[in-house]
Design a protein that fits this description.
This protein is an alpha/beta fold. The chain is about 40% helix and about 25% strand. The protein has three domains: about 80 residues, Winged helix-like DNA-binding domain superfamily/Winged helix DNA-binding domain (Arc Repressor Mutant, subunit A, Orthogonal Bundle), CATH 1.10.10; about 110 residues, Periplasmic binding protein-like II (D-Maltodextrin-Binding Protein, domain 2, 3-Layer(aba) Sandwich), CATH 3.40.190.10; about 100 residues, Periplasmic binding protein-like II (D-Maltodextrin-Binding Protein, domain 2). α2 crosses α3. The chain is elongated.
């Protein structure tokens, strides 16, 4: 039983595909298949159930995978124990980040992290789609919004304050909403991951309880760039984090409305798969992201909006 075989098996098991594992590891698919077969012969049991459509762990494979991941992490820690200064952390990190946070915060600071760990390679995904860290092989994910991943470890980092926005052109055509009742005469740009039109509504907090006012919507989008663009085009109201839209408000391209009725602040969390032992490179990037993002979120929550308001002074969001 070789460590390369363990590493290859772990990727196939996590990604559920020989082809995707081969692409991830930079190996030929035949090499990946042969390594798993050799490992199964070595341990004397079938670890993966193969069909034409999918690859699944057997019962023995499920038990073996957990110990395999621990062993690989221990081996990496052991390898780095006596040479952190000489060689530093090595390997590839797969990270998924929200596009705005990646662009405005993480990528500008990434050179200093890589300067401290020059032998690391970072594979960075920026998408509005909710990736599956386990199935897609991510070491960690920075996620904005409620969490529904019971199989992942979540490290809370802070919250993003929200506000309600509209373009000046939209307000000239439709008027300024002053109460929740006024929303019946307005339209909302609907954000939905699956482009479904169901559930469009204006979120707000009333006496500590999150509530939804149903609203008409003429467009549904599934990306933050399109969400902002639709609002700038005058297609309706949006409810967006302050941090990604502050410059648009300061420039007068968007206007804050109904500041007394904001959605609840959105939690920001670091997610990573359940493992008793994390590889040193994963521990390092988790620590770096936490130290980078948490103070930034705290500062964003304390900073005034300093934007152009709709006639009356808004209450501080969050």
């Amino acid at each position: 039983m070789q460590f390369d075989e363990l590493r290859i098996f772990e990727r196939v098991a996590v990604l559920g595909s020989f082809t995707r594992a081969a692409e991830h590891l930079g190996l030929a698919k035949g090499r990946v298949s042969a390594a798993v077969q050799q490992l199964e012969a070595s341990v004397g049991t079938r670890l993966l159930q193969r069909t034409t459509r999918q690859v699944k762990l057997t019962t023995d494979g499920e038990a073996f995978l957990g110990r395999c991941q621990e062993l690989l992490a221990d081996a990496e820690q052991l390898h780095a124990m006596f040479q952190p200064a000489a060689s530093g952390l090595q390997g590839r990190l797969r990270i998924d980040l929200p596009a705005t946070l990646a662009r405005e915060l993480v990528i500008p600071r990434l050179p200093e992290f890589l300067a401290a760990h020059p032998l690391l390679e970072v594979a960075l995904s920026t998408t509005d789609r909710r990736v599956d860290p386990v199935q897609e092989g991510f070491d960690c994910v920075l996620r904005v919004g409620p969490l529904h991943d019971a199989e992942l470890v979540a490290r809370p980092l802070g919250h993003l304050s929200m506000w309600n926005l509209a373009s000046p052109d939209y307000l000239r055509r439709h008027g300024l909403p002053r109460t929740l009742a006024d929303l019946a005469q307005h339209r909302l740009v609907h954000y939905a991951g699956n482009l479904g039109l169901q559930g469009a509504g204006f979120e707000h907090v009333e006496q500590g309880v999150a509530r939804l006012v149903p609203m008409a919507s003429s467009i549904v989008v599934n990306g933050t760039d399109a969400y902002q663009a639709a609002c700038l085009a005058g297609l309706g109201l949006i409810q967006a984090p302050v941090h990604g839209t502050r410059a648009l408000v300061q420039a007068g391209r968007l206007v804050e409305v109904l500041p007394q009725h904001t959605a609840a602040p959105m939690p920001v969390s670091l997610l990573y798969p359940h493992r008793r032992h994390l590889a040193p490179r994963v521990q390092a990037v988790l620590q770096w992201l936490a130290q980078l993002v948490s103070p930034w979120l705290a500062a964003m929550g304390q900073a005034p909006a300093d934007g152009k308001k709709a006639r009356h002074r808004p209450r501080k969001a969050g």
